[in-house]
Amino acid sequence: MYRFSAVLFDFDGTLAYTASDVWVSVRYGFESAGLILDEDYAGDDRNLAYTVGEMIKALYPGASEEQIRIAEENCNRHYRYVNSFDNTVMYEGIKELLEFIRAENIPCGVLSNKGHISLSRLLKEKGWDIYFDRFQGTTDESYGLSKTIRLREFVKYFDISNAIYIGDSYTDITAARDNGLLSAGVLYGDGDRELVKREHPDCLFDTAVDLLDCFRRGLF
Question: CA-CA distance, 31 to 70, in Å (whole number)?
Answer without folding.
Answer: 10
